[in-house]
Amino acid sequence: MSIAIAIDGPAGAGKSTIARLAAKELGYIYVDTGALYRTIGLAAFRRDLTADDKEQIIAMLPEIKVELAFNERQEKIVLLDGEDVSGLIRTPEISMMASAVSAIPEVRAYLLDLQRDMAHTNNVIMDGRDIGTVVLPDAQIKIFLSASPECRARRRYDELIEKGMDVKYEDILSDVIERDYADSHRDIAPLKPADDAISVDTSGEDLETSVNKLLGIMRDKL
Ligand code: DC
């Protein structure tokens, strides 16, 4: 039987970086489910759709193909209709679009099997918002990772600045707060800890400390 570790939490809590490093350490496959929602957000954006065009976004789903794959350097990438869009889905615009499309039940249903199939055939660390509650309710380990909004906004800001993007800290902070609210208050699969999740707060911690803390929890439970 394959082993699944679910890591849920709000944007910028460090889920993806920590999950990627922990997966490498344990020899598991890392699945970034946010990248899937972002890719659908990008597909909608490219069709000039907005958050209000729910019907058109739903109609678009059978026309697109979203896949997770590896590139020639063995890095995890996400493909939209065969194109590597990994670098294009990390902008603030696409973050907001991803949050909007993720509130549409048909979008969540569209991605559900894809996520479950990956966990069926591999040992995975999967990160997202509803992995422990909806996608993999039987995951052997569930972690809910959080940090203060200011701390998360600062991390996202540093990341985007390092990539050469022209962004303001205040804008990132208000995006974080807006997205937290939208992700936790939507009707379907809202962001919340599973009843049996272990909550971990990474505020003020450096990456190494957080990774070691999580690896400690995982090794204890495995
Ligand atoms: O983790 P992220 O910031 O890349 O996710 C982008 C958006 O996708 C986020 O606003 C919420 C949504 N999302 C979701 O609803 N469920 C998931 N399992 C992962 C992401």
Please give a structural write-up:
The chain has one domain: P-loop containing nucleotide triphosphate hydrolases (Rossmann fold), CATH 3.40.50.300. The mean pLDDT is 94. It has nine helices and eight strands. Helix 2 (33-46) packs across helix 4, helix 4 (92-101) runs parallel beside helix 8 and helix 7 crosses helix 8. The strands form two sheets. It has a five-stranded parallel sheet with strand order 2-6-1-7-8, with helices on both faces. Strands 3-4-5 form a three-stranded antiparallel sheet. It has 222 residues and is an alpha/beta fold.
List the helices and strands and how they pair.
Elements: E1 4-8, H1 15-26, E2 29-32, H2 33-46, H3 54-60, E3 66-70, E4 76-80, E5 83-84, H4 92-101, H5 105-121, E6 124-128, H6 131-135, E7 141-146, H7 149-162, H8 169-185, E8 198-201, H9 207-221
Helix pairs in contact: 1-9, 2-4, 2-5, 4-8, 7-8
The chain binds 2'-deoxycytidine-5'-monophosphate.
2'-deoxycytidine-5'-monophosphate (DC) binds next to helix 2, helix 4 and helix 8.
